[in-house]
Amino acid sequence: MGITLFLVDDHEVVRRGLKELIESDSEIKVVGEAATAQEAVEKIPSIAPDVAVLDVRLPDGSGVEVCREIRAKSPEVYCLMLTSFSDDEALFSSIMAGASGYLLKQVKGRELISAIKRVANGESLLDPALIRKVMDKIRSDTDIDERIARLTPQERAILKLIAEGKSNRQIASDMFLSEKTVKNYVSNMLGKMGFSRRTEAAVYAVKNIKDRL
Q1: How far, in Å, CA of 202 to CA of 210, rounded?
Q2: CB 110: neighbour CB atoms within 10 A?
Q3: In what order do the strands lie in the sheet with 3-8?
Q4: 163: closest CA among 120, 202, 208, 112?
Q5: Which end of the chain has less neighbouring CB within 10 Å, N or C?
Q6: Are 3 and 117 in contact (CB under 8 A)?
Q7: Are 33 and 79 in contact (CB under 8 A)?
Q8: In this predicted structure, what is the pLDDT of residue 109?
Q9: Residue 145's pLDDT is what?
Q10: Taking a C-beta distance cutoff of 8 angstroms, is the pair 134, 96 a contact?
């Protein structure tokens, strides 16, 4: 069959256009589509495509969140992020989620097809220097505080936003996550730090380590 591909975008016109463009290459076949994060997470594992092309912004979450779940459940499915916005935080989150590439929708057709083929072949389209920068950021200051050392990079990022006074909804928007996912992260984070309320964590972060998170 060649390369099998799953499309995730909340705009039907965009999906139709992408499908027509992608299937102009006889080596690639679109085997499934979804308009929401929930639909994508439900369909992709059973279809098991070679590549999933994911829009970063979706009405009920984000392609980054979908990528994270799919890579955890079906690591054989490679994810290629496609977005209209150039956003450093989304790029960082995509790398953390296990994406193989991150492209803007302004990409030319032949470049998108080339990217899909490379990703399907197991290649990463991400700049190695950028990946090193992200990993250095993750490793840095892991010993600044015993409580902080227990947290994952994602939990540390959320703690910093809490210290800035942001709500779960604002954090979800900033980090391209659903509010439910943020709530779960906050709950786990508080448990690891030994706090019962987010205000305790916020005060602790502001007093001790906010500038070094």
Answers
A1: 9
A2: 11
A3: 28-34, 3-8, 51-55, 78-83, 101-104
A4: 202
A5: N
A6: yes
A7: no
A8: 93
A9: 67
A10: yes
The two tokens of residue 38 are 């929930």
| CA 202 remoteness from chain centre | 25
Please name which of 26, 2, 7 lies closest in space to residue 17, comparing C-alpha atoms. 7
Q: Which two tokens stand for residue 81?
A: 């992020």
In this predicted structure, what is the pLDDT of residue 207?
A: 75
Compute and round to an integer the Cα radius of gyration of the chain: 18
Residues of the chain below pLDDT 70? 1, 127, 129-131, 133-145, 208-213
Euclidean distance between CA atoms 3 and 163, whole angstroms: 45
Name the residue with tokens 């996550």: 177
pLDDT value at position 31? 97
Burial of 9 from C-beta contacts in 10 A (0-12 / 13-18 / 19+):
buried
Q: Is the sign of the CA dihedral 152, 156, 158, 162 positive or negative? A: positive
pLDDT computed for residue 21 by the predictor: 95
| 67-75 own/partner pairs: CB under 8 Å, 24+ apart | 67/94, 67/97, 67/98, 67/99, 68/96, 68/97, 68/98, 69/41, 70/40, 70/41, 70/44, 70/45, 71/97, 71/98, 73/45, 74/44, 74/45, 74/48
